[in-house]
From TrEMBL:
Keyword tags: Membrane, Transmembrane, Transmembrane helix
Protein name: DUF8056 domain-containing protein
Segments forming domain DUF8056: 1-169
Entries under InterPro entries matching the protein: DUF8056
The keyword Transferase is annotated on this UniProt entry: no
Regions that span the bilayer: 27-54, 66-87, 99-121, 141-164
One Pfam match: DUF8056
Species: Haloplanus litoreus
Superkingdom classification of source: Archaea
Length: 169
């Protein structure tokens, strides 16, 4: 089929063309660009970790290399999932109502926002700056949380994304 897609990369233009939701179309563009940026960031991080641990044996050094790859997957998969879900639905069912597409786009944007919140929470105290502006109390409260709490918002947003797909399909 000429209108079909061939994998993850082809799903982005396919879903963009197939959807009638402008919110989803905007997420297909933003999510695609963020996916490329995050993927390049994690690839560069893996290269730096490998360069820093060459000459050492296996064991914990190999584990740290693998850890970067796994964390990268846990970040990239929820960024790509709304586009893949919508593309799959349009391909299999010949289309879908705009509410499904828009809801998945909203959960995608929620995940992007949760990544930002998670990064702010996990900033090491030595690198925190004094927050200013209208969001200063919120940023200060996020800085006050334990760093491990930075995992919560992205995990919760990814769960909401999956739940939204399950409920609306």
């Amino acid at each position: 089929m000429a209108d079909d897609y061939g994998g993850v990369v082809g799903a982005f233009p396919y879903a963009f063309r197939a959807s009638s939701s402008w919110l989803f179309r905007s997420y297909a563009v933003v999510g695609g660009l963020l996916t490329v940026a995050v993927s390049l960031l994690f690839i560069a991080a893996v290269v730096v970790v490998i360069a820093g641990t060459t000459g050492g044996g296996g064991g914990s050094l190999t584990l740290s290399r693998s850890f970067f790859a796994v964390v990268g997957l846990f970040v990239v998969v929820p960024l790509v999932a709304p586009v893949l879900f919508v593309a799959r639905r349009h391909r299999r069912e010949g289309g879908s109502e705009g509410s499904y597409d828009a809801a998945l786009a909203a959960t995608g944007y929620l995940f992007v926002l949760s990544l930002y919140v998670g990064v702010v929470v996990s900033v090491p105290p030595a690198q925190q700056t004094t927050p200013t502006g209208t969001l200063a109390p919120l940023i200060a409260a996020l800085y006050g949380l334990p760093q491990l709490a930075g995992l919560g918002p992205p995990l919760l947003a990814a769960a909401v994304e999956l739940l939204c797909h399950r409920l609306l399909r």
